[in-house]
Amino acid sequence: MAKGIWIVVEQSKLEIRKVSLELLSQGRIIADKTGEPLVAVILGKGVAELAGEVIPYGADKVILVDNEKLADYTTGAYTSVLNQLIRKEEPQAVLLGNTAVGKDLAPRLAQRLGVGMASDCTGIEIDDASFLSFKRPIYGGKAFAEVVSEVRPVLATIRPNTFPLAQPDASRQAEVVTETAAIDPEDLRAIVKEIAIATSQRPELIEANIIISGGRGMKGPENYCILEACADVLGAAVGASRAAVDAGWIEQKFQVGQTGKTVSPTLYIACGISGAIQHLAGMGSSKVIVAINKDPEANIFNLADYSIVGDLFEIIPLLTEEFKKL
Ligand code: FAD
């Protein structure tokens, strides 16, 4: 009996993350191929209004758990509620975004359910028996592993920007079910008292379509303004190498790489970055890579789709002026 492909929809202050809509879009394709229903699961407070936002992306059914204690994400409460729902409904697969929340939640859930999981996946395959397997980069992106689970549900986190957004269909209808779940005091050992949101007009690094990153070649913090000017014209996020972060030129939250964020934008522009394996591990799956470096032997050029050999202080302002004309 079909039990469903579940997408755990991530929301914060009733705003759905783009990666969840990407997963629903891909989930629809998987559901059509496997004959499984596509189920969106939304936890939070006052989440009923979000059902209408996920149905157009392909959900056959929406499960809502609306509870004051789920207003803000906490590991204990969210793990407990999802564990109860999954045990009750027994879905075939549960997919989450590889975000801070997804990375926190999925392994704990896997442990509670006694199943394995695949993390930071960049591909999903479906075999003839409708079994899902997952592709994930290993060895800093040098190779790919195929992860196959023999137990159900299969659990996986998927890298943001891996799958394109579907064209939403506003006429789509779906069943909406409100479930209740027990939340014990034991599940609420951590309580969120306040969330301080950093204000920025730029997109968040892991979900950005375009990223322009600066490395040690930027020479100092005062020069990041040329990257920012370019980012603002492109509607891009700004990133950095660890060398720039370690030098104190830019905050750690902007670091891309093995010990920073993993990104997969449509366009990644690397400026004054040599292309160390640890940096490539975080951005190697970008769709198009442009590198600007004055060293023609820089390793980043081995991965780049477009290589610009030259001084970034001349090239970035020129590019910014050209982008303004688009
Ligand atoms: P460099 O390697 O010094 O390169 C600077 C580049 O700028 C050079 O190629 C140079 O030719 C070019 N340049 C200089 N001036 C100009 C100019 N005017 N115009 C154009 N080009 C110019 N690194 C990360 O980035 N992310 C990580 O998450 C990360 N994690 C790590 C984890 C571990 C365990 C370890 C050991 C290292 C990690 N590193 C990480 C560090 C990594 O090994 C490199 O040291 C780092 O990526 C180098 O940063 P960079 O390319 O900015 O600097």
From TrEMBL:
<feature type="binding site">
    <location>
        <begin position="241"/>
        <end position="242"/>
    </location>
    <ligand>
        <name>FAD</name>
    </ligand>
</feature>
<dbReference type="InterPro" id="IPR014730">
    <property type="entry name" value="ETF_a/b_N"/>
</dbReference>
<dbReference type="InterPro" id="IPR001308">
    <property type="entry name" value="ETF_a/FixB"/>
</dbReference>
<feature type="binding site">
    <location>
        <position position="216"/>
    </location>
    <ligand>
        <name>FAD</name>
    </ligand>
</feature>
<feature type="binding site">
    <location>
        <begin position="255"/>
        <end position="259"/>
    </location>
    <ligand>
        <name>FAD</name>
    </ligand>
</feature>
<feature type="binding site">
    <location>
        <begin position="272"/>
        <end position="279"/>
    </location>
    <ligand>
        <name>FAD</name>
    </ligand>
</feature>
<dbReference type="InterPro" id="IPR029035">
    <property type="entry name" value="DHS-like_NAD/FAD-binding_dom"/>
</dbReference>
<keyword id="KW-0249">Electron transport</keyword>
<comment type="similarity">
    <text>Belongs to the ETF alpha-subunit/FixB family.</text>
</comment>
<dbReference type="GO" id="GO:0050660">
    <property type="term" value="F:flavin adenine dinucleotide binding"/>
</dbReference>
<dbReference type="InterPro" id="IPR014731">
    <property type="entry name" value="ETF_asu_C"/>
</dbReference>
<feature type="domain" description="Electron transfer flavoprotein alpha/beta-subunit N-terminal">
    <location>
        <begin position="5"/>
        <end position="192"/>
    </location>
</feature>
<keyword id="KW-0813">Transport</keyword>
<keyword id="KW-0285">Flavoprotein</keyword>
<dbReference type="GO" id="GO:0009055">
    <property type="term" value="F:electron transfer activity"/>
</dbReference>
<dbReference type="InterPro" id="IPR014729">
    <property type="entry name" value="Rossmann-like_a/b/a_fold"/>
</dbReference>
<dbReference type="InterPro" id="IPR018206">
    <property type="entry name" value="ETF_asu_C_CS"/>
</dbReference>
<dbReference type="GO" id="GO:0033539">
    <property type="term" value="P:fatty acid beta-oxidation using acyl-CoA dehydrogenase"/>
</dbReference>
<dbReference type="Pfam" id="PF01012">
    <property type="entry name" value="ETF"/>
</dbReference>
<feature type="binding site">
    <location>
        <position position="293"/>
    </location>
    <ligand>
        <name>FAD</name>
    </ligand>
</feature>
<keyword id="KW-0274">FAD</keyword>
<protein>
    <submittedName>
        <fullName>Electron transfer flavoprotein subunit alpha/FixB family protein</fullName>
    </submittedName>
</protein>
<dbReference type="Pfam" id="PF00766">
    <property type="entry name" value="ETF_alpha"/>
</dbReference>
<dbReference type="InterPro" id="IPR033947">
    <property type="entry name" value="ETF_alpha_N"/>
</dbReference>
